[in-house]
Amino acid sequence: MGVRAKRTHASRQAPWRLQVRWTGKTMLVVIVVLVVSGVYLAVNARLARAGRDVLSLEARRTELLRTTSELNAELASRTAPETMMAKAVALGFQPAQGDDVLFLTIDGYVPPSDFVAPRPPAEPDGGQAMLSPAYTETLGDWLMRWFGPSGDSS
User: What is the pTM of this model?
Assistant: First the structure.
């Protein structure tokens, strides 16, 4: 008896075996679909959370940029020359005159010398182009020699 014949004989004796086989295959397909859909939902949930995080970080960045701009504007208004001058006068300061300025000399202090740019290196041949003496013919001379009036290239 062949394998197929044994299977058919067993199915005739116990038809529930076919039902168990089909139920097992169906459950396997259902489980695979559930696992794939679960992974898909997990990935989408993580992606949605990352999108919300990006949006909140962009909003925070915009808020911080606005705050920085406001603080820079406030600093600029507080350190404006007119405002600083008014505060100094209110504190009892007055602008310095030429006689009020005192320069101190410190013994042993040597101020740094002024910057002097180095000269470019001198050219050894006085600015002449550095060509090998083997080059004695110009392009025009060479062309005339090859395609001269006689037309031959000898």
Answer: 0.43
